[in-house]
Amino acid sequence: MLRNAKVPGPYIYVGHSISGFTARLFAQQAPQDVKGLVLVDTSNPDQFDRVLQLVGPQKEGEAAIIGALREEASMEMVPKEGLLLRRSADEVRPLGPFGKMPTVVLEHGKELLPPGTPISAAFQALWHQLQVKNATISSNTQLIVAKNSGHYIHKEQPELVIQSIRKVYDSVRGNTLLPACGQPEEMLGGECIKLP
């Protein structure tokens, strides 16, 4: 599509949510074209099984949100979008690392589940673990928590997404490692997380 539109590469692929799978797949299949990634609160291939483990079997009187999480994690396909979730996760899971490809992983900072949901803290911790795992796809990665955002970081803190794209662009263009985290992220409501 980009070639047909005569948009010259190389490209930085920015993916949000489930489109993180597409970003990773495209980067693996076209490494000559994709030189950097920005993953905005993206899915992880293990998330469906991990969420099902977290919510457990249906219980009498459980909160509706827990049932909704179970249903979503059990879906084979997203009806409106026609996305084959499990198949997509299976395609992405075995993809190898991306070497030193500049990659910024943005993670939401606000709790996603309604206040008082019994598994809210556990869900937040699980999502963080999955984002840390997403950040291991490259040895040149930063994980930044968007402290003032829910899942739609690009809508709630767009300047943090733009800063991340610029950072990846500068790294690609200069053929350098990503700069150390610092003041720009903090000024934009982000917190850089040290990776293990």
Automatic annotation (TrEMBL):
In this chain the AB hydrolase-1 domain maps to: 4-59
User: What name is this protein filed under?
Assistant: Pimeloyl-ACP methyl ester carboxylesterase
Organism equals Deinococcus metallilatus
For this protein's source organism, the top of the classification is:
Bacteria, Thermotogati, Deinococcota, Deinococci, Deinococcales
